[in-house]
Specification:
The protein is of the alpha/beta class. It is 46% helix and 22% strand.
Amino acid sequence: MSKLIHIQLFLIFFFQVLFSQSVEVPVDIQFPIFLKILTFDRKLQQRGKNGLSMMILYQKNYKPSYSIREEINKLLNQLAINRIESIPIKYNFVDIDEVNLHAALIKYHTNLIYICPLRGVALQTITQTTKELGVLSFTGVPEYVEEGVSVGIELKGEKPHIMINITSAKAEQAEFSSQLLRVSKILE
């Protein structure tokens, strides 16, 4: 009987984690907000001295992740955003299951990363790498901000709300203005 209870508790926990790690705010709302947030980084010009390169990190074989990747791709094609404050920006879509993240970040000269929902991947490994390389991290999964991603969007009531993990943002060499910090939920 005890073994059955343990299995039930594990399944309850597993499904809570699985379903809680989802994107709350639609891509067509959150992604333009992320790009606007960049303009509040006092180190944007320094970060983009050779242009900006954003990696969209996803998993092809995990439907929620691949769906977000496809929505971002569609949105970027519609909006044709190729500059942030006169700095050219390019986008690279990378399946985490097919690359060494550290090597891919260097290969694509990545200085920004958007992390789609992921399954079976140690987020801490990703955030250690982004901090080591000074790559500013974004996500639409609010729990990921609590786990070390720098910037995220959560749904508060009916409205998107910016979340900033200030410790991670500083480690990734971001310096956000007080104007942005005042309207954001700050995590340490």
